[in-house]
Amino acid sequence: MENNPQANSTIKNTLLLAQFEVKKMLFNPRGLIALIAFSLVWMLILLYPISGASTFLINPDFRTVIEGFFGINAVSELFEWPVAELAVYWIAALYLFPLFSIFVSADQFASDKARGTLRFLTQRVGRDSLFFGRFIGHMLLQSLLLCLTVIATIVLAVSRETSLLLPALYSGLIVSINLIIVLLPYTALMAILSLYASSARQATIYAILVWAAMSITIAIINSYLPIINVLKWLLPGSQISLMINTQGLQSFMYAPIALIQACALLFAGKLYINRSAL
Amino acid sequence: MSLVTCKGLSKSYGDKQALKQVDISLNAGNPIALVGPNGAGKTTLFSLLCGYIKPTSGEISLLGHPPGSAALLGRIASLPQDAQLDPNLDVLTQLSFFASLQGFDSKAANAEALRVLNLVDLSDSAKHKPKSLSHGMAKRVSIAQALIGSPELVLLDEPTAGLDPANAKKIRELVKSLSAKTTFIISSHNLDELEKLCDQVLYLEQGQLQQSVSMSEAQHEDYLTVTMQRCAPASLINAVLGLADISAVEERENNQFLIKHNSQQAYAIEIALLQLFKQNNWQYKAILKGRTLEEKLFS
Asked: Staple partner for A31: which of A25, A202, B144, B212, CB 3.0–4.6 Å?
């Protein structure tokens, strides 16, 4: 059989690449090991801090400890959450998912580029499709895992108090969307680093270097020129410590930072993939 | 329309200039060979044509479009040197995916992947992961992926290097059988192979295009290349020089002799040579009209 079908549109190829990326992560040994590690970590978090959340959020000693750690009034909103399990989940997820994102999306391009596999792809899809397809694929995968942990938390909350179902679903939805937005710039930055690096490990090291170097530079600039305080918003994740003290729709107030960062990084990545040698 | 056009193409890696002002114009048709010593710039030229890298200066046009443009997707394919498939996914999954990116629906993509694997005799290995394939098998899979969707132009960078003779022969036959629809540009160090396959030979040296030789022109040259089984070279040269219309006889390696003549009569020299061999009981291996590709390029 020999026929030459009509070429796919850029969007169709982008989606095909995204879909294949998810499949690749879920059905290969390396992906599965990462998934098992992820599940075990979350099982521990769900079993201990989250399932016990309702008891210790009411406990004044715990409040003192948390306030001692983050500062008074820095976490006041945490105690306003209608579902205590989701409040604890929110703190854990805000810090753990970006970290997880750095590791899980470090290999968006690195190994394939080093191996020459990208050369098989660039004859069939444009570089834009390749870049955005892989990015969307990694976002889909992380969103899927994130939603699973949110659902597990809702189940825990409802198993304690069935009347919490509706508030838990509502908070769960807001938490999921917010966390997905938080992960966008992380995944976009990892896409660029992964294009530059020759292995996933190297991309992860570059990520650590970028965050460390940027934090130090911003801190130095701030100490000399405090007026340029806004510089800190350049770094992905700089809004996370402030997001802890938000809940409900209020937590969306920091979403524009992550969205603007993601757009800027994706645009830079698009330029970079089109100019780099593959 | 010209298949490939390069104008003033140059590519530098830091201080090293890999290609210098290369001008090429190639038309669709029989396979085209790209030859040259190691480091001559063959792979750089292929990478530029495929759009993997960008030229330092100059222009490239493939089927009227610059490399990497959307209009070329699926119409041009290549066997990139040393590129490997993803080791974690089986061959069929990856080839089907490539086909689906070229516009095949999922069922047709699977069938297309099996068709191209069948062309390189590897349909049995469809479910294997690239890791479990030998070097030669992996190369044939890479050739198979280049044939998905019957592209108009296929660039093969050393397609038979590392293949056993039987499989190398199969690949040559495959290229020959597909060349009615697809134009192949083949880079190789195996001049005998290129001689059998290609009509036009581009010779690249130190980043510059030194010559462009047409195989069909060879037929008009007044040369014969004779390879003997066993004979005394000196007496053969003397005897051949004694024939009419012979202007020179030179011995080449492996009992091979290059005979230059100025006979206007078709087959006169060939008949005279065969009679001479018969008289002296000399066994010949081959008589080639014209010169070998090696002779044309390097003498």
From this structure: A25
**ipTM of the complex model:** 0.87
Which residues of chain A are at the B interface, by a Cβ-Cβ cutoff of 8 Å? 1-8, 10, 13, 16-17, 20, 24, 28-30, 112, 115-117, 119-127, 275, 277-278
The minimal CB distance from B102 to the residues A2, A5, A30 is found for A5
In chain B the domains, ranked by start, together with CATH numbers, are: 4-216 (3.40.50.300), 218-298 (3.30.70.100)
Closest CA of chain A from B135, distance in Å: 15
Pairing of strands B256-261, B246-252: antiparallel
- Please indicate whether, in this complex, the C-beta atoms of A2 and B115 are within 8 angstroms of each other: yes
- Whether residue A202 lies inside any domain: the answer is yes
Tell me how many domains chain A contains: 1
Find out whether B31 and B179 touch, Cβ atoms under 8 Å: yes
Burial code (b: 16+ CB inside 10 Å, e: under 16) for A83-101 equals bbbbbbbbbbbbebbbebb
Pick from B143, B293, B150, B160: nearest CA to B225? B293
- Domain coverage including residue A231: 10-275
Distance CA A37, CA A43 (A): 10
Interface of B with A (CB under 8 A): 47, 50-54, 68, 70, 73-74, 76-78, 80, 82-89, 94, 97-98, 100-105, 108, 111-112, 115, 142, 145, 149-150
- Neighbouring C-beta atoms of residue B86, cutoff 10 Å: 19
CB contact under 8 A, A24 and B86: yes
Kindly state whether residue A141 falls inside one of the protein's structural domains.
Answer: yes
Whether B83 and A116 lie within 8 Å, measured CB to CB: yes
Cross-chain residue pair A4–B150, CB shorter than 8 Å:
yes
Q: Using CA atoms, how far apart are residues B99 and A8, in angstroms rounded to an integer?
A: 11
| B197 sits in which H/E element | helix B191-197
> What is the count of residue pairs from A and B with beta carbons less than 8 Å apart?
94
Alpha-carbon distance B232 to nearest alpha carbon in chain A (angstroms):
52
Of A185, A184, A187, A192, the residue nearest A273 (C-alpha): A192
Backbone angles phi, psi at B19, to 5 degrees: -135, 135
CB B147 within 8 A of CB B77: yes
In a domain, A154, yes or no: yes
Assigned domain for A165 exists:
yes
pLDDT of chain B along its 299 residues, tens only?
A: 688 999 999 999 988 888 999 998 888 888 999 988 888 888 999 999 999 999 999 999 999 999 988 889 889 999 988 899 999 899 999 999 999 999 999 899 999 999 999 999 999 999 999 999 998 899 999 999 999 999 999 999 989 888 888 888 889 999 999 998 899 999 988 888 888 888 888 888 888 887 777 766 645 568 888 898 877 888 888 888 888 888 888 888 778 888 888 888 888 888 988 998 898 888 898 888 888 877 777 76
Sole residue written with tokens 């390069």: B6
A-chain CB neighbours of B47 within 8 Å are 277
